[in-house]
Specification:
Layout lengths: L1 H42 L14 H12 L5 H13 L4 H13 L2 H11 L1 H25 L4 H6 L14 H7 L12 H32 L2 H7 L6 H19 L7 H10 L3 H9 L5 H40 L22 H28 L1
Helix pairs in contact: 1-5, 1-9, 1-15, 2-4, 3-4, 3-8, 4-6, 5-6, 6-13, 6-14, 8-9, 9-12, 9-15, 11-13, 11-14, 12-13, 13-14
Length: 377
């Protein structure tokens, strides 16, 4: 009995340690990404949303993608924001483009991806995101049944966003109050935007690190190799890896930046290049979000949106794999071990960057407290 308890304690402490090391390795990148995103939100002027997203034109989709990329949302808040856009008269295509870009084209995700996996994956994530939005646009254009979204928006389930762990209403208000002149367009406003984004995403990020730490410690590497087929002809292997990558994302419950540590584990475990990208894209089809789609849009609307997202993720993953293989941009040779598998806390450049990030957080906290004190006074 005692040996069993010690064994359980070993994997628990090992999982927590691995998660802590991963968080430490990427802490500065997260802080920098959130800071740049907050600056864009505060200092970049936004115009009326509903008036610019009313049709599925190139300008509307491009604007939605840009605004999504600077919004820095967790997957749940992005879903709520897209629902709000649709309720205000936005077309489905720009609403979905906004939702996808606000979780997959955000700066903090790119920085963490660079730190854990390298620039090849950052480039693939960016290219693949635009490919996915284009595929999604095409699929909606040729398959959307007449009146489906209008009927779906009449579904009485809009209170479903409450209780899922992200502050959706605060997020929506947060993204509409930066156009006012004066105090909001200041570093105090940046501090507010920074902490608002962190408050929305910290649970997903933490869960992602914890899940990856658990899988690194408990799941044997052979299990991953068995999950992703490697002994079949390349075209079928690529397709299987991409589909399984999205399915793993569905079951992982992690979203946005939180799925990058697990993506690095999948890559070291043998998944194909396109499968990694498809897995990262899959943060918008995790099981809790599928249930939220059901409450927002009803069963028929939820099935349609989920199917569009799933097919777009799979096709985009395949397209990225083919494109990067043809361009010679897929990392070759033996798979490296997970970048944080043997990592440990030590005094190096990461420590200095993390300390600088802590100083930045302290300054933002001081600005926010001072602003609240002035308002209270």
């Amino acid at each position: 009995m005692m040996s069993h308890d010690l064994s359980g304690l070993h994997w628990l402490t090992g999982s927590l340690y691995a998660a802590a090391v991963m968080l430490w390795e990427t802490f500065w990148a997260l802080a920098l990404g959130f800071t740049i995103s907050a600056c864009l939100q505060v200092f970049v002027r936004r115009e009326s949303i509903a008036g610019h997203f009313g049709r599925a034109g190139l300008r509307e989709v491009a604007l939605a993608t840009f605004l999504g990329a600077v919004s820095s949302s967790c997957s749940y808040a992005a879903t709520a924001a897209a629902h709000a856009l649709l309720k205000k008269g936005a077309n489905l295509v720009p609403a979905l483009a906004f939702m996808f870009a606000s979780t997959n084209l955000v700066l903090e995700l790119g920085l963490v991806l660079w730190v854990l996996m390298g620039w090849h994956f950052v480039l693939a994530e960016v290219v693949g995101s635009f490919v996915l939005i284009g595929i999604m646009w095409l699929l909606v254009t040729i398959t959307l049944p007449r009146g489906l979204i209008e009927k779906a928006l009449l579904h009485q389930g809009e209170g479903s966003e409450e209780g899922h762990g992200c502050h959706d209403h605060g997020h929506e208000e947060h993204h509409h109050d930066h156009s006012a002149p004066g105090e909001s367009k200041s570093w105090a406003g940046v501090a507010d935007a920074f902490f608002m984004d962190v408050s929305m995403m910290w649970k997903e990020i933490l869960i992602g690190f914890l899940i990856a730490g658990f899988l690194m410690t408990v799941v044997p590497s052979d299990w991953w190799k068995a999950l992703f087929l490697t002994d079949i002809p390349q075209p079928w292997r690529m397709i299987e890896n991409v589909i399984v990558g999205v399915l793993v994302a569905v079951a992982s419950f992690t979203c946005s930046v939180g799925n990058i540590p697990l993506a690095s584990l999948l890559w070291s475990g043998g998944i194909g290049f396109g499968g990694v990208i498809a897995f990262i894209f899959g943060d918008l089809v995790v099981i809790p979000l599928l249930l939220i789609y059901r409450k927002y849009y009803g069963l028929k609307g939820a099935c349609y949106i989920s199917a569009i997202l799933f097919v777009s993720m799979v096709v985009a993953g395949i397209a990225v794999d083919l494109l990067f293989t043809a361009a010679g941009l897929v990392p070759t040779g033996p798979r490296p071990p997970n970048p944080v598998m043997n990592a440990q806390f030590e005094w190096n450049y990461t420590t200095w960057l993390d300390l600088a990030a802590l100083v930045l957080l302290g300054w933002f906290a001081t600005l926010r407290i001072s602003k609240k004190s002035c308002c209270a006074g």
